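Worked problem 6 (solution included).
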Amino acid sequence: MLSNRSFVRGFIAGTILALSILAAAAESPAMTASKTGYAPVNGLNLYYEIYGAGEPLVLLHGGAGAIEIFSSIMPDLSRNHQVIAVDLQAHGRTAPTLLVFGDADAVRPAHAVEFFELLGGGKRDGGWDGSGMSNARLAILSDTTHYTIFSSSAMTTAVVQFLDTEAATTK
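Solution. The predicted structure is:
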């Protein structure tokens, strides 16, 4: 049974998380999506927004997040890419895949590595020519939590580097 004390702690933590998301979005430059709408996916109507043009990049938020959590990095990501941001319940198969976690996150780095391994990453030496590498990539950003990762310039750097590397290898 949930005690009153546990409920209050959970409520306070949830409120702080929600306020931190709203604060991050409020401090970010406003961008207007070129297209918004709802896509029918497996019986759900998923809301999406599209920014920029170029190679597609799909952004999936985690936890209690929303599209607005990416607002501070959206200008950089959409400069050379078509960014498709999906709100809630966004799952799907994409290859290649980049997993990004903070080193001080709610998800322990060991669990991030386990997830990476489930996608085929980290199973063997990639080799000098890269022929042993999987399509999955893992970035664990230092000095970052799930509260700060979406406004981190390190996240932008990791994502842009991943996209540029993938674009160069698929041409």
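Discussion: Residues 165 and 171 are 10 Å apart (CA to CA).
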